[in-house]
Amino acid sequence: MIELMGVNKTYNGSAYAVKDLNLNIRDGEIFGFLGPNGAGKTTTIKMITGILSSTDGNIKINGIDIVKEPLKAKKIFGFVPDNPDIFLRLKGIEYLNFMADAYDVSAEERKERIKNLSERFQMEAALNDQIQSYSHGMRQKIVIMGVLIHNPEVWILDEPMTGLDPKSSYLLKEMMREHANSGKTVFFSTHVLEVAEKICDRVAIINKGKILFCGTLEEMREHFKENESLEKMFLEMTENE
Ligand SMILES: Nc1ncnc2c1ncn2[C@@H]1O[C@H](COP(=O)(O)OP(=O)(O)OP(=O)(O)O)[C@@H](O)[C@H]1O
Predict the structure, then answer these.
(1) How far apart are the CA of 147 and the centre of ligand 1, in A?
(2) What is the CA(17)–ligand 1 centre distance, in A?
(3) Cα angle vertex 149, ends 144, 154, to 5°?
(4) Taking the CB of residue 195, how many other CB atoms lie within 10 A of it?
(5) What does the buried/exposed string (b/e) look like for 128-167 if buried means 16 or more CB atoms within 10 Å of the residue's CB?
(6) d(CA 44, ligand 1 centre) in Å
(7) Within 13 Å and on the Cβ side, how many CA atoms surround 189?
(8) Which residue puts its alpha carbon closest to atom 28 of ligand 1?
(9) Who contacts 104 (Cβ-Cβ below 8 Å, separation ≥6)?
């Protein structure tokens, strides 16, 4: 579960990047955070994960406040950032072991998870190569694998499908569904309406830092019928794809 209560963010006292954010992302659901470029998605995700501090408001992950108890909160979630260009000089396997060390994953567990994840993502043959030799999609995959190695309860993913080929994208969506079905939480951002439509139980739509809508896809369709400006915004978003 992720809770955002009255969260605001301004960068250097300028205009609000996000304003009065109230969200409750429940256990057992895939929650899509949807909005066009510059809407405030990454800012929000960075605040949830403790990378940025909010200007005001509170954020809790499974009841743990990310500002008051950052270490405890960080053990609960796994975060896939929007830019997978990290630790380029490490080999894939070294990166996975680094992540497993960071989260105290036992030798037995990590062996099993590395095997399982590299098979599923078809990365076995690449694990002994340096990450800098990987394609964008492979980098994205190794980051996802590194995040999942400690089997976090809450998954937070920023634009996770970007750069993935259709097969890997399908696999990730399947894994997100399995995770949510096991009663855990999946929160991800996208600016692609179709991705959200396919896999989300609920979505929030953010634009210019404000939540315009939060609910199920069915409710979203109903809402669209009555709200031309929202539909227009969506058309603009999808046309830009
Ligand atoms: N470091 C920063 N300093 C000042 N303003 C920033 C900074 N980072 C983001 N912003 C501003 O905050 C607003 C929200 O940006 P954010 O990156 O959260 O959007 P986004 O929804 O993730 O966009 P995208 O889909 O393009 O990644 C934008 O107006 C952006 O210009």
Answers:
(1) 24
(2) 7
(3) 75
(4) 18
(5) eeebeebeeebbbbbbbbbbbbbebbbbbbbbbbbbbeee
(6) 9
(7) 22
(8) 38
(9) 150
Question: How many whole angstroms separate alpha carbon 11 and alpha carbon 9?
Answer: 7
8 Å CB contact between 160 and 169: no
171-212 pLDDT, tens digit each: 899 999 999 999 999 999 988 878 888 899 999 989 889 998
**Domains of the chain (ranges plus CATH)?**
2-83+152-239 (3.40.50.300)
Residues forming a β-bridge with 18: 9
Place of tokens 């909010």: 54
What is the ipTM score, two decimals? 0.95
- Read off the pLDDT of residues 95-132 as tens digits, 9 standing for 90 and up: 999 999 999 999 999 999 999 999 999 999 999 999 99
pLDDT at 197: 82
Q: What is the DSSP letter of 15?
A: S
For ligand 1, atom 31: residue with the closest CA? 38
Q: State phi, psi for 233 to the nearest 5 degrees.
A: -60, -40
